[in-house]
Predict the 3D structure of the following.
Amino acid sequence: MANIKSAEKRIRTTKKKTSINRSRKSEIKTYIKKFDAALEEGNVDEARELLKIIDKKLKRAAHKNVIHKNAASRKLSKLTRKLNEAV
């Protein structure tokens, strides 16, 4: 355990940030699962709406350095391709 006050603060800050980042990643994964479920059911309109939400969340996560910007772009491209193939 850290003895220095600034190191203790860094530990607390890191825990908070880690928690927030996990939450963001988990939320994105949940929306992706909903998107896949909507496509399987053939509900294209709902899938389009979910794709807009996923786009916004991925870009925000990339901007906040939760995930890499290329990873966000790759995931969005993959989902868009799935949607276009379903239509």
Observations:
- Residues 26-86 form a domain with the Methane Monooxygenase Hydroxylase; Chain G, domain 1 fold (CATH 1.20.58.110).
